[in-house]
């Protein structure tokens, strides 16, 4: 299982584990199962309501088929865009598509992966995708290489909320108003890195995070320890953005 190092837009290194071929195959078959269930449901509806008997024109029939089967065709593209790198199958298999340059994947990135499914998965019984993943250091298929993405193992957070938001008491007094210069994505990166520090107790990682945050915000840590400073930044952001 390969480790994948991502340099974020804040120049912070995060390490992930690349998804194994078995996990990706399981996610693919789960998604295929969901699509088959949808097709079976559509066929049952056709038989039950005699739709084609009421539409005699062949072009009209073809138009109905295209519309009804569009969810199957665009299934992967739709869910990866809406769920930010997940499909229902990937969610169950606990894997996710991410950008390897630290930026948020775009619609175009997901579209490239979706189009390349024709080559990687649906040509030669998925041989091309399997071979490219076997020879890639980041377990990328051709679609991932072209889109600049990779598939990683995703673990749900249990000790923190999966989002950047947390409850802050109304009586709280914020310390750094400069946090409003940060974006939600900046805070997500800060929180993810802080969680990684709490898991591994890597003081060097925490120190690098604090140095970068103070640089971006143009503040100092005052009397706080490095850990207290990051916790204050997270609370300040949640408190202030909730009141904008």
Would you mind describing this structure in some detail?
With 244 residues, this protein is mainly alpha-helical. The chain has 2 domains: 3-153, no CATH class; 177-241. 57% of the residues lie in helices and 8% in strands. β1 (3-7) and β2 form a beta hairpin. The longest helix has 29 residues, at 21-49. The radius of gyration is 23 Å and the shape is elongated. The model is unreliable at 157-162 (pLDDT under 50).
Question: Helix and strand layout, with pairings?
Answer:
Blueprint lengths: L2 E5 L5 E5 L3 H29 L1 H4 L3 H16 L1 H8 L5 H6 L1 E5 L7 H14 L6 H9 L6 H6 L1 E5 L30 H17 L2 H15 L8 H16 L3
Antiparallel strand pairs: 1-2, 3-4
Mean pLDDT: 84
DSSP strand (E) fraction? 5-15%
Give the CA-CA distance, first to last residue.
44 Å
Spans of 5+ residues with little confidence (pLDDT < 50)?
157-162
- Sketch the major β-sheet: 2 strands, antiparallel
Structural class category: mainly alpha
Membrane topology: Multi-pass membrane protein
Keywords: Membrane, Transmembrane, Transmembrane helix
Domain RDD: 19-148
Transmembrane segments: 21-43, 63-86, 114-135
């Amino acid at each position: 299982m390969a480790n994948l190092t991502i340099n974020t837009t804040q120049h912070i290194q995060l390490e992930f584990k690349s998804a194994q071929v078995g996990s990706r195959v399981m996610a693919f078959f789960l998604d295929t199962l969901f699509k088959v269930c949808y097709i079976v449901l559509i066929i049952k509806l056709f038989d039950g309501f005699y739709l084609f008997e009421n539409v005699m024109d062949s072009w009209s029939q073809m138009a109905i088929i295209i519309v009804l089967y569009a969810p199957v065709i665009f299934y992967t593209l739709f869910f990866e865009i809406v769920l930010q790198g997940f499909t229902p199958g990937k969610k169950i298999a606990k894997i996710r598509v991410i950008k390897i340059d630290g930026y948020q994947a775009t619609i175009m990135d997901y579209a490239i992966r979706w189009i390349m499914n024709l080559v990687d998965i649906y040509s030669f019984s998925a041989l091309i995708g399997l071979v490219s993943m076997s020879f890639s250091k980041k377990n990328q298929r051709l679609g991932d290489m072209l889109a600049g993405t990779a598939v990683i193992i995703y673990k749900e957070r249990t000790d923190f909320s999966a989002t950047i938001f947390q409850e802050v008491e109304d009586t709280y007094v914020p310390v750094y108003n400069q946090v409003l210069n940060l974006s939600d994505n900046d805070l997500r990166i800060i929180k993810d890195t802080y969680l990684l520090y709490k898991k591994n107790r890597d003081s060097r990682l925490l120190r690098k995070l604090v140095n970068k945050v103070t640089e971006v915000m143009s503040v100092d840590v005052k009397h706080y320890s490095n850990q207290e400073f990051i916790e204050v930044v997270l609370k300040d952001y949640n408190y202030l953005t909730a009141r904008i």
